[in-house]
Amino acid sequence: MNLSDVLKFSIDLLAVLLLALGIKGLSKVRSAREANRLAAVAMILATIGVLVDSYGNLGISIDAWIWIILGSAVGGLLGIFTAKKVAMTAMPETVALFNGCGGMSSLLVALAVALFPSTESTGELSNGFVEIISIVISVFVGSITFTGSIVAMAKLQGWLSTPGWMQSKIRHAVNIGFAVLALVSMVSLLMGGNSGLWLLVVGSGLLGIGVTMPIGGADMPVVISLLNSYSGVAAAAAGFVVGSQLLIVAGAMVGAAGLILTQVMCNGMNRSLVSVLFGGAIGGTPSSGSSGSGEYVNITSCSVEECALTLEAAEKVVIVPGYGLAVAQAQHTLREVTRALEGSGIQVTYAINPVAGRMPGHMNVLLAEADVPYEQLKEMDVINPEFPATDVVLVLGANDVVNPQAKNDSSSPLYGMPVLDVQEARTVFVIKRGMSAGYSGIKNDLFDLANTSMVFGDAKKVLGDLLLELKELGISGKG
Q: Of all helices (H) and strands (E), which one includes residue 339?
């Protein structure tokens, strides 16, 4: 064991330990930032470990070092710029893009090893069965992750729409064809030689596009978490290719965590993963016998002044955030309102549905940006029994996750989906721009209930006006 091997082992061991500490720290909001920095340092150390190993065994020319430094600098600057400029509403698209970058990185690593083997190899993919399998998995999963993530990002951004034929059963035959193409190329690679390498890249890339393109916006949280899992699997395979223990460990953890999160998202939407990937979108065609179809008949609207008077007399208030809150960028104004209520002795908590927003944890990140204490965020199973004792519920931009149809109407496409039981509260205020439906396209029976009042308008403006009304009533948060 030479000095280079000892140094690489030490660096990788330290990187793995820092990564484990970083992931543990992400479980709490207070420690999440420092934990994220620890994980970043771990990845930098892993990169250094790979370079040390490469330099010790192969030697890296000055020109290669220039490209390495230049690529690292450009990538780092792009990452900083993206992190600083991305809006909260664009966070799902950003996560999808990052998943795609992870898949592309694993793909490029595998291609580099396959096309430019080390001097110890014969020039073919014959460096060992483990390496061949790792290259095949990395190329296959990396290609699917990259193309699928780019399609998901483009659909979330509104740049792409699903063609009509991809919503029919024809797409299944097309995707099977892409899968067979990828399978044939895999067999060719495993039998020796790299003649099927580019065929695998093309087949798996097209498969990623074909599977992701038909998926609707309502299922996007599941898709994002699944693609995150794919990026982890690709990274783990790339770790075997380049001999990086950290990549293997990190990729395995990300892959497992992504699969667990995907299952949580599926349970939260009352959907199976098979129906998400191969079925239609939620609420594509509501059942004609569903009570959720048709027009609203008992809508009650109220002013901001009436809402403020009701809040003044309340003892317990629950906030239900949704994607509309992120669109309005009203999280900071909401925090000012809740501070005013808390300053007057009113108990405020936040009800979090796991599929609210466009990605897993979207609402948690949104509220954390506004410095909402993590202890005030309550999961659905915890908060639901508390609604009967709640005086006022403020629903901000949420729709499907508060629809009573999920529990009351067996003919509804939402039936069985876990939702927040806000209708059990004494008074419910729903702040919305209009009566548009959520992702499911289904009427929300909550809006017709006698204890529900609609406050129409942009969430940021409504909350700003509400804050002024509360101050006029003597609720300023300073007492």
A: helix 331-343
Q: Which is nearest to 443 in space by CA: 225, 337, 318, 286? A: 286
Asked about 400 being catalytic, the answer comes back as: yes
CA distance 161 to 220: 14
Q: Which residue has the tokens 């909260």?
A: 88
B/e letters for 312-329, b = 16+ CB within 10 Å, e = fewer, are: bebebbbbbbbbbbbbbb
Q: Count how many residues are written for the chain.
A: 479
How, if at all, do strands 377-379 and 347-352 pair?
Answer: parallel
Q: 177: part of which helix (H) or strand (E)?
A: helix 170-190
**CB within 8 Å of 341: residues ≥ 6 apart:** 311, 314, 317, 348, 470, 475, 477
- The strands making up 377-379's β-sheet, listed across from edge to edge, are 377-379, 347-352, 316-321, 392-396, 427-432, 452-456
| Signed CA dihedral, 327, 333, 335, 338: sign only | negative
Residue 287: burial class (beta carbons within 10 Å; 0-12, 13-18, 19+): middle
The helix/strand/coil state of 327 is helix
Give the single-character DSSP code of 191.
T
pLDDT digits (tens, 9 = 90+) for 60-115: 667 777 888 888 889 889 888 888 888 777 778 888 888 999 999 999 999 988 88
What are 6-12's contacts with CB under 8 Å, separation 24+? 7/52, 7/56, 8/49, 8/52, 8/53, 8/56, 11/45, 11/46, 11/48, 11/49, 11/52, 12/45, 12/46, 12/49, 12/244, 12/245, 12/246
Q: pTM to 2 decimals?
A: 0.75
Helical pair 331-343 and 459-472, crossing angle rounded to 10 deg: 20
CA end-to-end span of the chain, whole Å? 69
Q: Are 359 and 95 in contact (CB under 8 A)?
A: yes
Catalytic residue among 12, 53, 219, 400: 400
Q: What are the structure tokens assigned to 428, written together?
A: 């419910």
Phi, psi for residue 26 in degrees, rounded to 5? -70, -10
pLDDT tens for each residue of 343-396:
999 999 999 988 887 777 788 888 888 889 888 999 888 999 999 999 999 999
Q: Which residues of 126-156 are buried (b: 16+ CB within 10 A; e: fewer)?
A: ebeeebbbbbbbbbbbbbbbbbbbbbbbbbb
